[in-house]
Amino acid sequence: xxxxxxxxxxxxxxxxxxxxxxxxxxxxxxxxxxxxxYVGDWGVLVVPLGVGVGTFQSTAVPQPSIEEPQPDSKDLxxxxxxxxxxxxxxxxxxxxxxxxxxxHELPAISVSGFSDFDxxxxxxxxxxxxxxxxxxxxxxxEPADPLLAPGTMTLIYGSVTATIFAxxxxxxxxxxxxxxxxxxxxxxxxxxxxAKINVIIVSLRKRLDSGxxxxxxxxxxxxxxxxxxxxxxxxxxCLAMSAGEFARLDLGTGExxxxxxxxxxxxxxxxxxxxxxxxxxxxxxxxxxxRAALDDVRRFVSALRIxxxxxxxxxxxxxxxxxxxx
Length: 326
Fold this sequence. Notes:
Layout: H1 4-25, E1 31-33, E2 37-38, E3 42-48, E4 65-66, E5 76-86, E6 89-98, E7 102-105, E8 109-110, E9 121-125, H2 152-178, H3 180-210, H4 215-234, H5 258-279, H6 287-304, E10 308-310, E11 316-318
């Protein structure tokens, strides 16, 4: 007597043979590529068929077709429907573009050797609400803050600070140019003139001592250079002035009292009168007189820079010895 389990083996084999085609022909769930398709994007609906390649009669893959013509719609456009081999199986590809969010039902698609596909739907998402009825759903978000490079704010505030500082500095320099710089420039100019006339005096004394020039020529050169010195010192043309006109010359020392400055101008006129008398006499100009004239000029230039000093009785007087004329 055979065991009971041995009798059940043929029944099990029969069940496997009956249900195997059903499991092979079963289809997996369709899916989208990409998983979320937005309005206006190109999407692909993939329908796995679960059928081996061996079921096709030839190497050519049958092409699917849409049984009903696609309606003229602006909401959904089907670009292509194709059947593609994927390893040992096949899959149906539907390429589309949707211009309205929500659910869309595809028209029936037929493939040779398969049942019709008449219940395929796709869902299209949107960055706005699906119905678009809410006014707030149609409003865009506020503009984002601009992207700033590192150190941008430091550069902006630094530029503003530098501009303000430059304006203040410019105003200060302008005021200083009108007052302080003018005085500074005049002081530097007079230092240069003093040094230059002293160099000329030393040079003329050497010429006189060496006998390179006679006394008359040295005195003429001294008078000409001294007039140039006074012209640049006072700002008045002294080259063609007579000896008497020097008594009314404004020396513009800025450090001497009007009385002391007037005394210097009178003594200056006396110097030029004496030089004129030496040059135009019949006896000629002696070397001794020229040396005295050189000393007079040196002392006069020094006197121009002597500050005023109050005397014991309250009057202002010049500090220092000037010359035999002073």
